């Protein structure tokens, strides 16, 4: 029944110095992923078995690359989310920003290391380094691009990039999701967007923004500067900051063989909420990718009308599970809503992984293809 909902998604588918200086900092932060000084995230344990690549090709499910990000106090939430979306075929990268302590980051690695299943399949990585991130500024965009670059460096044989926050939670098990995605074009991008981001009724798109988190170690509020004119060399699109993007499009944004991603990266370095506009504008202004979009982010999310965030709770349960969404957010840690989803939708026992077709592989020959299907 969940799978039939998935198919409904596809109906109808076919000042200047300041600016310059800040842009240079952003490029510097992104280039770290290609420098010798940058460390590829280490496996949670040095005793983990070598990564076995899942079978790919016609008839095989795709490989999903998940990035789970969090901040201070989010370690347990991230582990619970990981267990709810885990599958041996997929790749996972967990990262805490500088709002967290060294102890929290070490503890996150310990929690991952203590799970025998994760050691067996070796497809979960924890980023040991941290940096400041402000969701309103370009540091959040830099973090997202960096995460995708790391996942490409670890293993580029994945099909879709899915960023999640520690407050996200799945509304579908991975077996069903992978099965549904098996029949989709691998270049398809799930990105909710419209032209002219006046949909937010914000003035930030017309103002210069400086994000100090690009050059400070600690999380810092962003700064606004003088107003500027709207661009006329490209059309701006905006929408949900939550996306599911194809590997080919992420490579296009990171490697930048066309000038559009670089040009727009420099522009959105100094725009507020770039995660709500950057990918949307790049994809809609790129001839190669503008026809690969499905305007749906597959998320059940509340967009607050005030700065105070709104949290999902049990009062929304019926509406949440009845829709076509694959993920819901934000949900507080240990909220009863999580237990309801675990019991009724995912059939997940407390502190366990969601059962799936791969579950029988635990304790037997992990070389069998069944584990990776």
Report on this model:
With 373 residues, this protein is of the alpha/beta class. It has one domain (2-358). The chain has helices at residues 2-7, 16-31, 75-85, 102-113, 116-121, 138-154, 174-182, 247-255, 259-268, 278-284, 317-322, 336-346; strands spanning 64-70, 91-96, 124-126, 160-165, 169-170, 189-195, 207-210, 223-227, 237-246, 293-294, 299-301, 327-329. The strands form three sheets. Strands 3-2-1-4-9-6-10 form a seven-stranded mixed β-sheet, with helices on both faces. Helix 2 (16-31) runs parallel beside helix 6 (138-154) and helix 6 (138-154) packs across helix 8 (247-255). The longest helix has 17 residues, at 138-154. Mean pLDDT is 82; it is low at 10-40, 42-49 and 363-368.
Please render the helix and strand layout as text:
Layout: H1 2-7, H2 16-31, E1 64-70, H3 75-85, E2 91-96, H4 102-113, H5 116-121, E3 124-126, H6 138-154, E4 160-165, E5 169-170, H7 174-182, E6 189-195, E7 207-210, E8 223-227, E9 237-246, H8 247-255, H9 259-268, H10 278-284, E10 293-294, E11 299-301, H11 317-322, E12 327-329, H12 336-346
Parallel strand pairs: 1-2, 1-4, 2-3, 6-10, 11-12
Antiparallel strand pairs: 4-9, 5-12, 6-9, 7-8
Helix pairs in contact: 2-6, 6-8
Keywords: Glycoprotein, Glycosyltransferase, Membrane, Transferase, Transmembrane, Transmembrane helix
InterPro entries: GLCAT14A/B/C (IPR044610), Glyco_trans_14 (IPR003406)
GO cellular component, one term: membrane
């Amino acid at each position: 029944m969940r799978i039939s909902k998935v198919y409904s998604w596809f109906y109808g588918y076919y000042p200047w110095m300041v600016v310059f200086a800040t842009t240079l900092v952003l490029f510097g932060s992104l280039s770290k992923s290609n420098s010798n000084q940058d460390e590829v995230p280490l496996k949670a344990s040095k005793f983990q078995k070598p990564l076995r690549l899942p079978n790919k090709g016609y008839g095989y499910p795709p490989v999903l690359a998940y990035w789970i990000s969090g901040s201070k106090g989010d370690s347990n939430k991230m582990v619970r989310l990981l267990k709810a979306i885990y599958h041996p075929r997929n790749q996972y990268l967990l990262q805490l920003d500088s709002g967290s302590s060294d102890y929290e980051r070490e503890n996150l690695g310990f929690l991952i290391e203590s799970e025998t299943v994760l050691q067996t399949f070796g497809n979960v990585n924890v980023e040991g380094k941290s940096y400041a991130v402000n969701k309103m500024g370009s540091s959040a965009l830099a973090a997202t691009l960096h995460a995708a670059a790391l996942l490409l460096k670890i293993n580029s044989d994945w099909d879709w990039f899915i960023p999640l926050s520690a407050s996200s939670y799945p509304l579908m098990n991975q077996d069903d999701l992978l099965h549904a995605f098996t029949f989709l074009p691998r270049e398809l991008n799930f990105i909710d967007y419209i032209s002219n981001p006046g949909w937010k009724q914000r003035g930030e798109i017309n103002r210069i923004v400086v994000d100090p988190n690009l050059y400070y170690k600690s999380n810092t509020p962003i700064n606004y500067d003088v107003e500027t004119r709207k661009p006329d060399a490209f059309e701006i699109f905006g929408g949900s900051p939550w996306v599911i993007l194809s590997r080919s499009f992420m490579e296009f944004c990171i490697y930048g063989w066309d000038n559009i991603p670089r040009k727009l990266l420099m522009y959105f370095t100094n725009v507020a909420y770039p995660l709500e506009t950057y990918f949307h504008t790049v994809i809609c202004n790129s001839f190669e990718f503008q026809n690969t979009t499905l305007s749906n982010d597959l998320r059940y999310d509340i967009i607050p009308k005030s700065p105070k965030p709104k949290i999902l709770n049990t009062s929304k349960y019926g509406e949440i599970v009845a829709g076509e969404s694959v993920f819901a957010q934000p949900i507080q840690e240990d909220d009863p809503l999580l237990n309801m989803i675990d019991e009724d939708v995912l059939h997940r026992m407390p502190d366990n992984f969601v059962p799936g077709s791969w579950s029988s592989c635990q304790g037997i020959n992990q070389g069998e293809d069944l584990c990776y299907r």
